[in-house]
Amino acid sequence: MEVSKKALQSNAKIVRGLLKPETKLMAVVKSNAYGHGLVETARIFSHSDINSPLSKTPNTDWLGVDNINEGILLRENGVKAPILVMGFTQPERFLEAVKHGLRVTIYNSNFWPLSIVPKLLAHLKIDTGMSRQGVTLADLPKFLKAMPPGLPIEGIYTHFANAD
Asked: Per-residue DSSP letters for 75-132?
């Protein structure tokens, strides 16, 4: 399979054009960018359009990866964009996430050790019907009430079950 760098850049530009200027755009490159090359694809999405020397806006603002190992690999290859680890991260690896400037996803009380890891940023995932990962809407009030004070929540996201 051949992937066009220009097509990826163009697709990102089209999607960005549909968004309000203050809205951030994340390219999900998890699982080796769905078989298209993790590092190569992440570089395309995290850099400005090389054909336009006046463009200083990156193709996307964020990158999403499946696990901490993918995030570390991107950092080791010079990718500087904000990276969200969308899959499970073992609490024992939270310090590693901070060291590499990675954000982690939380969705159950196994993540409460986050509150004692300085500078770790987390995103809360809410399950809206995929039933794979995330706090269910029914459990969300209880989850939020039980959350330790000062837990560093930077963002909230979901994975739509029915995009239609």
From this structure: HHTT--S-EEE-S---GGGHHHHHHTTEEEEE-SGGGGGGGGSTT--EEEEEESS--S
